[in-house]
Amino acid sequence: MNDILDFCDQRKLKEVSKPKETSRYKEVNCAIMKGEGLFRLPVFTKQFCHLLLDELDAIEKSDCPKGRPNSMNKSGILLNEYGFDTYLLGPLRQQYLAPVTSLLFPNSGGICLDLPKAFTVTYGSGHDLDLSCHFDNSEVTLNVALGYDGFSGGHLVFGRMKDELASQDSLKTPLHVEHRTGWGVLHRGGHMHSAEKLLGGKRCNLIMWMRSSAVGNVTCPMCNQPPQLLPTPGADDGFTIQDQGTQITVPRQREVDVCHAL
Known about the structure:
By secondary structure, this protein is of the alpha+beta class. The chain has a single domain, classed as Jelly Rolls (Sandwich). The chain has four helices and 16 strands. It has helices spanning 10-17, 46-61, 84-104, 213-216; strands spanning 31-32, 38-42, 115-123, 131-134, 140-147, 152-153, 156-161, 175-177, 183-188, 191-195, 198-200, 203-211, 229-233, 241-242, 249-250, 255-259. The strands form five sheets. Strands 1-2-9-5-12-3 form a six-stranded antiparallel β-sheet. The protein has a four-stranded antiparallel β-sheet with strand order 4-10-7-8, with no helix packed on it. Strands 6-11 form a two-stranded antiparallel sheet. Helix 1 (10-17) crosses helix 3. The longest helix has 21 residues, at 84-104. It is globular, with a radius of gyration of 18 Å. The relative contact order is 0.16.
């Protein structure tokens, strides 16, 4: 397990995560797609995507309890429930993604993303086929296509930022993004987007919501208001509390603080 990052596309990821000190967006070795704040970068090798899908299939077929990935998707796996954070997602975020988000999203919490949530979503027969327009409970989101051979359709569609337009106009002049196995799309959580209907086959994506408690403790990303926190069982969900004894800000260990709007 300690060598699992060998399956990341390390040569390209290192180039992406270590830009020159004077670099601007155009000098970062990842594709900048039409529209401000939307990037594509290599994350996993195709070999690793196949291995991970085999592992996810085994989990799905097991009797292990499975939490729903989020409030919109009905099919998928919360990866922290199965230990993926320690050896895969934590190192990936800290060693590779943090330098990139610090450069690309410095004004959107990208320099202090301390509370991630990662999960998979599955589309196909017996699962969701599409996903309506929405924004994420994150400051920055990474969406990686894991594949499954032979699927068609299901492109991501990006519109405007949530604060720019009314919801009915959020996908005006949309940008369609095709899934590319092993590659991730990096965008701000407030970037309105949807998933088109899957036309055939089955697809699975790994999604990492990267949250900043420094931002979320001031303004909830879902309601755009100061968060009114309610304790509920679980892991942290993007907010932290002030420890009265040490005055150090820490996430709850046995309860999750969630905004009343969630």
